[in-house]
Automatic annotation (TrEMBL):
It comes from Photobacterium andalusiense. Residues 27-333 form the KAP NTPase domain. InterPro entries: KAP_P-loop, P-loop_NTPase. Transmembrane segments: none annotated. This is KAP family P-loop domain protein. SUPFAM superfamilies: P-loop containing nucleoside triphosphate hydrolases.
Amino acid sequence: MKIVVPEVQISSDCGFSPDIDIFKRKGFGERLANLVENSGGSPVIALDSGWGEGKSTFIKMWRGYLENHREPEIISIYFDAFENDYQKDPFLTLASEIYQLITVEDEERKTKFKDKAAKAAKSLLRGALKVSVKVGTAGIVDGSAVDVAEKELSNLVADQVDDLIKERFEHAAKDKLALKEFRSYLSNFANEVNGGKPIVFIIDELDRCKPDFALELLEQVKHLFSVQGITFLLVTNREQLEESIKSKYGQGIDPTNYLHKFINVWLTMPRASDEYNDNGYQFLQNALSAMKEENDVIANTDSVSVLNDIVKFYQPSFREIERILSYFSIVNNMLGNQRYLENYQYMISMVCYLKACQPNCLKVINGKLNSSHIIEAARLDEIASSESYNLQYVNKLVRFDFADEDTRKQMLEEREIQMNGMRGAPQNLLKTISSWLSEINPS
């Protein structure tokens, strides 16, 4: 059995193919596309979802739908903020992505775009008193010039700094005009390129990149790139993005109000979790199927049933479910075809969940596990009222593990715990199974 869930392969033109769109998000994708097409103006839309909830997978399918399965077609630009947060200048980074829409043969448009972008870049950089810009024939701005100029600036004497300040004042009007002309040109460009089809600029992983880069991107989008014909879709985890704002400006700032300045509409990625349609359960089943090799047999099937109920109850993210399954696969591979008794199987599932989602509670201190930490992390009081027999029994097993001898005896007499075939079982089942995984940490 594979210990890592294989990555879903999504071709650029598949769209919301039923075999890939297991959460049936096509309807949401269609409504989002209609919003982009019909909103008019230059809206900035944010798609909010937790870490590991399938945002990037959805975006890959959505892009295929926009460009291959929809009429009218919507042109999309994809930008991974996390992969590009080493970039020095967000303006040039975003402008370069739009520049790629120009066909190779359209030399006149390419030249004009570079000219407008270079003038705007000079104005921005002069305003920040950071760097000079060198316009190159191969691209918009030579990035090496940025690095060199930043180093040289620190060596300037006072008179040279004064000259830079004077230059800023002298060019203020021209700089303002250059930025205005860039916005005007960009709007015309958006309405002319590719036959005037709508353009959506997707910025993904905004919550994962460096705080400074994320906030500079927001400001550049709102003030320079948000023009008629281009809709921005920011894909992020709102809570984490708000933490980036606090990191930059201090705890006194209201991050919600700050984001209102840049984002017009917030949308939330749908995740079904009702009795008859649970996306976590669906993901677990698909992932397990993908991890099984040909002729693989999971001998301890009770563990899978418990995992199903754990996912439905705790609602871990899809990324966390992948980690749970990695630990489960490791245990399954260690056991081979050996079928363990029911109590072991139930506890294996709980340990895999705690190891993946609440690892700190399984730390052994002075040779012992902290029972109160585990009871709190496992939310055993809530499990007790769960309708799932599996979870109720797991609850009893964990409490039995940490109970004193009198309580253990009482639980056995009242048949709360079944010990058939468990002669010689370890005193603490949870600790024993946890020790199997103590040195293993799949990434």
